[in-house]
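Protocol step 4 of 5: obtain the predicted structure for the target chain.
Materials: sequence only (see below). No template structures provided, no constraints applied. The aim of this step is simply to have a reference model before the mutagenesis design in step 5. Sequence pasted as it appears in the construct record:
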Amino acid sequence: MSQQHFSEPPSVLARRKDGDGPRKQTREEYRKQKELEELRKAGNAPAEVDESGRDINPHIPKYMVDVPWYVTYDHSKPTLKHQRYNDEKKDKFDGMEKWYARGQDSKIPSTIKYRPGACENCGAMGHKRKDCLEKPRKRLAKYGGAVIASDDVQQPDLKLNFDGKRDRWNGIDLDRHQEKIRSEFEKLEEARRMIKAKQLEEESNNLEEQDAESSPAAKRELDSDDEEEDEDKYADEMNLPQKLHLESKKKISVRNLRMREDTAKYLLNLDPNSAYYDPKSRSMRDNPYKEKQEVITTPYIGDNYVRYSGEVSQFAKSQLFAWEAADKGVEVHQQAEPTKLELLHKEFNQRYDECAKNIKNSVLEKYGGAEHLEGLPKELIFSQTENYVEYNRYGNVVKTLEKATVKSKYVEDEFVHNHTSVWGSYYTDDKWGYKCCQSTDRNSYCTNLKTVSAKS
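Step 4 output (structure tokens):
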């Protein structure tokens, strides 16, 4: 028995009126539908779009895409609404911004007349007579009492989720919490300042007592100590990171602070046409003594020297290679994977050299001329040499220039203080000396009469 294929789902057909029969699909329509499904699964055709504008995954089975017959809403277009969770049925919970009212007990009565449903005793809305917390009145508010109490504050009916019910910080007043932390911090700061002032007062008293008994030199020494303490005192007022306990006897190093003996960059050359100094970044990129004719010995020649010296150029090449590799689809990062980047860069350079060498060889093989690239020996170019070599009748080397003696990195064959021998040429009683005068004092002059007469 052949299976019939219809272009509309059964749920739509079930809602049709009597007489509106379904239209049967032809073989050609069914074949085109299957081809379109295969193209969508392969990614060669755009996916089907539902009524809300979202794409429908073509790999979803048909029994999940088809809408059941008992669905009541209209779905003339393809949809997956019957498979999704209905937003209208979701439970809506209150957030942290909503909480019970606190401290809002108003003493001003809301009315002067009794209202039906209010408390018979005090006349306030929100509770009954048996729950009233005020003193029982002789004349109830219901029967013409003069004073009507203020209404009870209506607390909101909060609906919290599982986490909200168990959150011990839910409903906290952040302003009051911050005020509490600020007050505690101010108290600690005040106590610390008092202790610091007391210590400074005691130290100043001790210095005054010692000053009366000390010499002028000691007084100058104490003055230098006072300057260091002043530096520490000013350092206490600076905004340093937390959990950093400061004491007056501890040295403090702060970034971007220079020593007192150092000269600022902008004071090295006061010429307004010299290197530009950026006060915001505290940088002077160019050499301040660049236009000076005389040679000036200075430890600072500009920030660009540090930027373009050492391994900075190699680092810049690696960074450029990492960017180019990332553009080509290779996942590599200079800071995250430096070893991987170095190996890739090394392998790339080797392959680049091999490729260049192969291209050169292929060109030489095709056009020739390799003999012109090979240089001649130096002896054949100039037709002369300084190397003297003498051979015998059998072709063996008989006489040639002696090889130069390899010298060390230390100074050799230099005689000082009229000596004719070097230091270390004489040794006696575990001591080194000069052989000419047998002196073991290195800075002594030669006392050998023959040496002195020869020098004179």
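Step 4 remarks: Residues 1-6, 233-251 have pLDDT under 50 and may be disordered. DSSP finds eleven helices and six strands in the chain.
Proceed to step 5.
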